[in-house]
């Protein structure tokens, strides 16, 4: 039976203000969850506390895009997706609005989804003191890990990693355990989970191996591309 990934993650998150962190499918998951919420006739705000691709180049599936305070004059309708970010940089990215502004604005929406981390399109992330950027008003955090990293050189696929070695299940487990790893930004006051994306890229043996991963928070294996949840451990 094909269990829908968007439905399962939304149920675990509880809606509210969701921060998506990590690497290996954050933006794609943001879009997938947004579309699920639109189908449920929920008002959705998409934004960032770091940087994201511009909606001019990347399809966020949004109905309206705002790059200034005009967003506060917009009254979102049921089933509407609104994107809010700041321009003005020469790097082609959309930058974070003021966090207080996001907090105030989220009161006008049923669900706010924040891309709260950056990884330069790599499938894994090792954090620094500066990230992820998870505001205090966030109610749930979804940390993404890209399983397409398996078997590859760590420094090539993990943003922030300089140590030598190849990505294997033991290394993925170390990222789950490390204070600067996947679970950074989690707290008991929030609904938190780790989503292992790109499960469909693995061999049968690799799929068995990654099921050995463990975490004190809910752990899910699935595919944003297929919108499919393969397994979860809560």
Q: Within the CATH hierarchy, at the fold level, what is the topology?
A: Rossmann fold
The strands making up the biggest β-sheet line up spatially as: 1-14-13-12-10-2-8-3-6-5
Q: In whole angstroms, how far apart are the ends? A: 19 Å
Structural class: alpha/beta
Question: In percent, how helical is the residue content?
Answer: 10-25%
What does this structure look like?
With 234 residues, the chain is of the alpha/beta class. The protein has a single domain, classed as Rossmann fold. It has 6 helices and 14 strands. It has helices at residues 5-13, 26-39, 99-106, 154-157, 169-177, 204-210, and strands at 3-4, 16-22, 44-48, 51-53, 64-66, 81-84, 93-95, 111-115, 124-125, 140-146, 158-159, 191-197, 219-223, 228-233. The strands form 3 sheets. A 10-stranded mixed sheet has the order 1-14-13-12-10-2-8-3-6-5, with helices on both faces. Strands 4-7 form a two-stranded antiparallel ribbon. Strand 13 (219-223) and strand 14 form a beta hairpin. Helix 1 (5-13) crosses helix 2 (26-39). The radius of gyration is 17 Å and the shape is globular. The mean pLDDT is 94.
């Amino acid at each position: 039976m094909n269990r829908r990934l968007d439905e399962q993650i939304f149920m675990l998150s509880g809606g509210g203000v969701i921060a998506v962190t990590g690497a290996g499918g954050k933006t794609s998951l943001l879009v997938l969850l947004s579309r699920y919420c639109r189908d449920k006739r929920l008002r959705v705000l998409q934004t960032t506390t770091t940087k994201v691709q511009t909606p001019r180049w990347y399809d966020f599936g949004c109905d309206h895009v705002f790059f200034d305070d005009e967003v506060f004059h917009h009254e979102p309708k049921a089933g509407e997706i609104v994107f809010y970010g700041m321009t003005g940089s020469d790097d082609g990215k959309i930058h974070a609005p003021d966090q207080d502004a996001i907090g105030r604005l989220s009161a006008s929406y049923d669900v706010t989804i924040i891309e709260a981390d950056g990884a330069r399109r790599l499938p894994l992330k090792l954090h620094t003191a500066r990230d992820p950027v998870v505001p205090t008003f966030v109610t749930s955090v979804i940390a993404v890990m890209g399983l397409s990293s398996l078997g590859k050189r760590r420094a090539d696929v993990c943003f922030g990693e300089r140590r030598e070695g190849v990505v294997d299940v033991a290394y993925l487990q170390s990222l789950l355990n490390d204070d600067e790893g996947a679970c950074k930004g989690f707290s008991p006051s929030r609904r938190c989970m780790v989503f292992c994306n790109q499960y469909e890229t693995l061999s049968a043996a690799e799929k068995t191996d990654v099921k050995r991963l463990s975490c004190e928070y809910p752990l899910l294996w699935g595919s944003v591309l297929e919108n499919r949840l393969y397994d979860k451990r809560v």
